[in-house]
Design brief:
D-Maltodextrin-Binding Protein, domain 2; 2 domains
């Protein structure tokens, strides 16, 4: 690793202006998630080998977009940022991200190692590389292995439905099992499903997983919104049904912290969630159900694909040092260290590494989840689309707005957003 870093610094000397990376300090803005902690745990290596001090500021997701906008519009405090999939089109259209292809070519960094579905979300846009995929948050079905193996529950399920109790692979099975599992169990209330239904990205993600499972999509091939018909409309109806029959009443205030708490305390049989949660749910320090949680592909075969990408702001004054960090943090050795700590890979060679698979057997399934994950389209106003859908879904579930009226409103607003989007013309 030391040799590769030194080669990079020499390449920076030759290629980027004739001066060795001069910045002795770079600033990075990240989200408060476990994958950020895993990067921080490895930082001493980079600082020792490069002489570059790295300052990481981690804030909650809810604050990130608001904090980034003035930085990207003016003089940036940050030399590296992480970009959520739904911000990609907005940031690229505005010219806020530095194209990385010259750095990639000069350093010999191999972007073909990334899972294509992720590289096309948080890597390249229209053939230009603006990001390196940082971590994936593709979504699948988390379930309690001990509950599905419970002999009494298995007998009761077979008596009621005439079939064996198993982890569902189809949507109708998923609904049936969720309703069946909602019961008193070992002295506490068990819910078949723990959903995140607070207004925001969470409720949108819950719906989008069901939408893809039911064959729906955001737009048709001509960029006409389709959320008020077919599988997308059926997903909104099903989300409302699941909330009423299988979930805690308080789920309308749940984001990912709250769903993690509920699941880790043994309140749920299933949860549709991000892959990075699995390691934490199986950590005895964090979870009462550790050792009894596994993950599989979303019923229906496709869940929401998602990820974050490393990027260099176009207005950063320390771009060479920023690239030195990106080249290091996304190297095989460091990406593997992060994965062994519990991180969520984006590189195929990390997913297939024997040590990673030995420590986390679910990595095999997680690779399938990522490869089959379906993202929302890259568009300038993707963030606004999420906000519109989150608002309407929340009104459907919390305020008793009819499903059709809510999704009709969402579709109309999405069609207006597309009209002025340069990335979809």
């Amino acid at each position: 690793m030391r040799r590769s870093l030194m080669v990079l610094l020499v390449l920076c000397l030759i290629t980027f202006g004739g001066n060795l990376v001069q910045a002795q300090e770079i600033n990075i803005l990240m989200e408060t998630v476990p994958d950020t902690d895993y990067v921080i745990a490895c930082l001493d290596q980079f600082e020792k080998e490069s002489g570059i001090k790295v300052n990481i500021e981690a804030i909650t997701y809810a604050s990130m977009h608001e904090k980034l906008l003035p930085q990207l519009l003016g003089k940036s405090t940050y030399d590296v940022i992480v970009v959520d999939k739904q911000w990609v089109g907005e940031f690229v259209s505005a010219g806020w991200l530095e194209p990385l292809d010259p750095y990639i070519e000069a350093s010999g960094f191999d972007t073909s190692v990334y899972v294509p579905s992720l590289f096309n979300q948080v890597g390249q846009v229209n053939g230009v590389t603006y990001m390196l995929p940082f971590y994936n948050y593709s979504m699948g079905l988390v379930y309690r292995t001990d509950i599905f193996a419970d002999e009494d529950l298995k007998a009761a399920y077979k008596a009621e439905f005439g079939t064996e109790l198993k982890v569902p692979t189809e949507v109708d099975e998923f609904v049936q099992v969720a309703k069946f599992m909602t019961r008193e169990y070992k002295g506490q209330q068990l819910y078949g499903l723990i959903p995140q239904l607070a207004r925001g990205v969470g409720i949108h993600a819950e719906w989008a997983n069901l939408m893809y499972a039911l064959g729906g999509d955001y737009f048709d091939e001509n960029w006409n919104a389709t959320v008020n018909s077919g599988g997308a409309l059926a997903a909104a109806e099903l989300l409302l049904e699941l909330y009423k029959t299988c979930a805690p009443v308080a789920a309308t205030s749940y984001d990912f912290d709250e769903v993690f708490t509920a699941m880790s305390q043994g309140q749920g049989a299933m949860m549709v969630t991000y892959g990075w949660m699995l390691a934490s749910l199986n950590n005895p320090a964090n979870s009462r159900v550790a050792g009894n949680v596994d993950m599989t592909i979303m019923p229906g075969g496709h869940g929401v694909g998602g990820g974050w990408g490393w990027a260099i702001p176009a207005n950063s004054s320390n771009k060479d040092a920023a690239w030195a960090f990106l080249n290091w943090v996304e190297s095989f050795d460091v990406a593997k260290q992060r994965a062994l700590l519990g991180g969520s890979p984006t590189r195929t060679d990390i997913f297939e590494d024997a040590d990673v698979r030995a420590k986390y057997p679910a990595t095999v399934t997680m690779q399938q989840i990522v490869e089959n994950g379906r993202p929302m389209p890259v568009m300038t106003y993707a963030n606004a689309v999420v906000e519109v859908l989150a608002r309407e879904l929340s009104q459907i579930i919390v305020e008793n707005k009819t499903v059709k009226a809510g999704m009709d409103t969402a579709a109309a607003e999405m069609n207006e957003l597309v009209k002025n989007d340069p990335l979809v013309k």
